[in-house]
Design a protein that fits this description.
alpha/beta, eight-stranded mixed sheet, single chain, globular
Length: 292
Amino acid sequence: MFVFKAAVVGAGVMGGEIAQVLAASDVPVVLKDVEQKFVDAGLEKAREVTERQNKRLVEKEKITAEQAAENSERTLSLITGTTSYDGFGDVDFVIEAVPEKMEIKHAVFAEIDAVTPGHAILASNTSGLSITDIGDATDRPDKVVGFHFFWPASFMRLVEVIEGEDTSPETAQAAANFAQQIRKVPVRCGECPGFVVNRILISMASEFWRYQDETGVPVEAIDQAIADSKVAPMGPFRLADMTGLDTAVQVARDLRDAYGERFHVHRGMEELVAAGHLGRKTGRGFHAYPDG
């Protein structure tokens, strides 16, 4: 199945970037959220990413400034922001990117099930929730699949394609094909806690989290040591800030519950979440982000 039009529900940390990825691959996309301020933020994120990408091409002398402006205008023209489902009647692929709470996922999937054509694939960007349970909110669980981007979606090449118990082989293959259509590398897997990447990523991060909890070494020192060593673009605490501490805590808890104490939940991270400091998206986490 070729995707001629797509939709993204949720214009938060990931939604705007996901919409930009689709539009940059010449796929018209509807970006929806419940309030216009969230839609506007998602559209602004798409604009920032698009202009930054084209600026780099100009700096590398691969395109001219005029071509960069044309490219940006074309990409952004393919994204339509909305607070309603009016534009969902002819979409082929929907990506849900709302907060990681099953009750919210169920509500959204029931809604998109009702407003999209029967052939449309309904995908979730969840980083760890059950695709099978999400599909139970629809009348087409065979067309529900996980489609997990990594932050920042505009840069990271990988997309996990996760099959629930009811996901049909045709749906999983179509989702993998769509990942390639938008210039991503699909990794297919069955449903399990953490899927593929988070089982690897969190097992590594757990060791740093455990070490910091046990020794009290400042998180800034650990992040700086990782950055200086160049083994990763950023340290585990700044990465958690970028992805959202609420999401990081939930994934860590799920993995600990599933696989035992080899997966550590950082106490300081739980305290920050309880205080409402969720990382970059709230302006403060392990590090401060005065500009949001």
